[in-house]
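INFO  loader      accepted 1 record
INFO  loader      residues=94
INFO  predictor   begin
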Amino acid sequence: MVDRELSEIVGTPQDGGRSVLTTVQVSILSGLSAGLTDEAIAGRLGISVRTCRRHVATLFQVLGATSRFQAGVLAAQRGWVVRRVRHRPEGAPS
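INFO  predictor   done
INFO  writer      dumping C-alpha cells
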C-alpha cells in the first residue's frame, strides 16, 4: 500500500505535463524530496529496490536532474510534490 504522504500531488493531468508521471513516480519523487533512500522508498511503496532505482533514473531524465537533491527541488518547484514543513514548538531544542 502506498504511503499517503508519499503519493500526494498538486493538480490534475490536465494542467501541463504532470500526466507524464505515473503514481509510483510521483511517490518516488516525494520520497526523494524528503531525503529518503531507494531502500526506504521501495519499502514504503512495496516495490523492489531495483525497480525504484529504474524509476529514479527515468525521473532524472524527465527533470533534467543530476542528483537526488536536485530532482526533489525541481519537483517541488514545479508543484509535482508537496513538501510538509514541520514547525518546532517554542522553546524546543533545535
